[in-house]
Design a protein that fits this description.
It is globular and about 65 Å long. Helices cover 39% and strands 16% of the residues. The chain folds into 2 domains: 84-286, Aspartate Aminotransferase, domain 2; 292-375, Aspartate Aminotransferase, domain 1 (Alpha-Beta Complex), CATH 3.90.1150.10. Helix 1 (3-19) runs antiparallel to helix 3 (52-68). It has 12 helices and 15 strands. The chain has 376 residues and is an alpha/beta fold. The relative contact order is 0.16.
Length: 376
């Protein structure tokens, strides 16, 4: 295979890293997202925009698999090495060592891994809130535990704790309102293990998961990676049973299926992430600007202010991230989303809640806000 093909696989994120030696401007960073040339794209809370460098890395990896074959020893060894690089990069992003990170396909999959391994019973209670995504509460229900649902208020969460409570299962950032829950403080005050859904936090806020038992990461949302990417952070991997083993879970096994688990959180890797997805997420992580958090936060505040001035009933949590929601008649919400999409503005509704939601990323500019407000 030509040497240039191998170079193309690595270069997208290497070029991005080299570029970080000088401050990248907002215009340069935003220009990497082709969708923004056409749309005011305010939907990273579901799936983030894809950058040119991300797609280039994915295509290069696909080309490599076509020319070298996906089953060749060289290709497979390289894929495993790239997975370890990605594991380390995600670990650095959330403030832990790589041995505490499993690579998953989604936050939902990560929740299932944890809840299956905890071996909960109907006599066990798990506390969650009214504002959780099905990606968390679906696995909670399937766990067999008694699910206690309270308002997403720290005092009500703590008041719900009983001697039967085995786990807190909460979002760091609520997908409904963008409210930020004090997950570390709740763990400390309750003394309970905690499973944190980080789908709306990693990539939005500076996140340090130290001290949290289980924390899930989405790759395709605010990190702007491909679908089918994510991670699970486990503080004490050896304390959680491997209830959903994959071939990647073991370092050796017997003919009856018994196995010796790999050390650390690698034992929870549920699947072999496609090489193109690994390459794409690595490129997306490398392309994140250092000023991204502050830029997104200030733009989200500006949108809340402008919506309120326009007469919208904006939800403004005391501590908040960059999801911006406003109340609207529930039956009219789907039509608004369709009408805005036709006008080149992409937002979403939250079904049955009477809420419209705009996801403000570091790439969002004032023109995007103008287009949203004009379309409304």
């Amino acid at each position: 295979m030509p040497r240039s093909l191998r170079d193309r696989v690595a270069l997208p994120w290497q070029r991005q890293r080299a570029r970080q030696n000088r401050p990248v401007t907002f215009e340069e960073a935003r220009s990497q997202f082709p969708v923004l040339d056409r749309f005011a794209y305010l939907q990273a809370g579901s799936v983030g925009p894809l950058a040119r460098t991300t797609i280039a890395a994915m295509r290069a990896e696909q080309d490599l698999s076509v020319h070298e074959g996906r089953g060749s020893p060289a290709y497979f060894e390289r894929l495993l090495a790239q997975r370890e690089e990605l594991r380390g990069e995600i670990a650095a992003l959330v403030g832990v060592g790589a041995d505490h990170v499993a690579l998953t396909a989604s936050t939902t999959e990560a929740c299932n891994v944890v809840l299956a391994g905890l071996d909960l019973t109907p006599g066990d209670e798990v506390i969650t809130t009214t504002d959780e995504h099905f990606g968390l509460i679906g696995p909670l229900h399937a766990s067999g535990a008694h699910v206690v649902v309270v308002e997403p208020d720290p005092e009500r969460i703590l008041a719900a704790v009983t001697p039967r409570t085995r786990l807190l299962a909460l979002s760091h950032v609520l997908w409904t309102t963008g409210a930020v829950l004090p997950v570390l403080e709740l763990k400390r005050e309750s003394g309970l293990p905690i499973l944190v859904d980080g789908a709306q936090s990693v990539g939005v806020l500076p996140v340090d998961v130290s001290g949290l038992d289980f924390y899930t990461v989405s790759g395709q949302k605010w990190l702007c990676g491909p679908e089918g990417t994510g991670a699970l952070v486990v503080t004490e991997p050896e304390a959680l049973r491997v209830a959903l083993p994959s071939y990647l879970s073991q370092r050796s096994y017997a003919s009856d299926g018994s196995f010796e688990a790999k050390p650390g959180a690698r034992r929870f890797d549920p699947n072999l992430t496609p090489g193109s997805a690994v390459a794409g997420l690595r490129a997306a992580l490398a392309g994140r600007p250092e000023w991204g958090y502050d830029r997104a936060a200030s733009t989200a505040e500006l949108l809340r202010e402008r919506l309120a001035q326009a007469g919208a009933d904006v939800v403004v949590p005391e501590t908040r991230a960059t999801l911006v929601t406003w109340r609207f008649p529930v039956d009219a919400c789907p039509g608004v989303v369709v009408r805005l999409a036709e006008a080149g503005v992409v937002i979403r509704e939250l079904p049955g809640r009477g809420l419209l939601r705009a996801s403000v990323g570091w790439w969002t500019n004032d023109e995007d806000l103008d287009r949203l407000l004009d379309a409304l």
